[in-house]
Amino acid sequence: MDKFxxxxxxxxxxxxxxxLEGFFVNELYEGRSFNGLFELTPDWGKGKPxxxxxxxxxxxxxEVIDRELLSKAEKTSKVxx
Length: 81
Prior knowledge:
alpha+beta; 5-stranded antiparallel beta sheet; 2 helices; 26% helix
């Protein structure tokens, strides 16, 4: 398991000048976080180029989702289905 892997939600459409195209509000994405930097792409794991941004830029458009809570929600959803 990748200890740097994160799941995050887009809170606000990024400004086109940031180079963060392809992110949509309220969608969940995967990326990595290390040393105060965030490595992002809307298509994680599909060989697409990533963008590396600083924490203050990340927090302007995104929020990290607690992976434990997300995992519990997925398990609960499977039980309900």
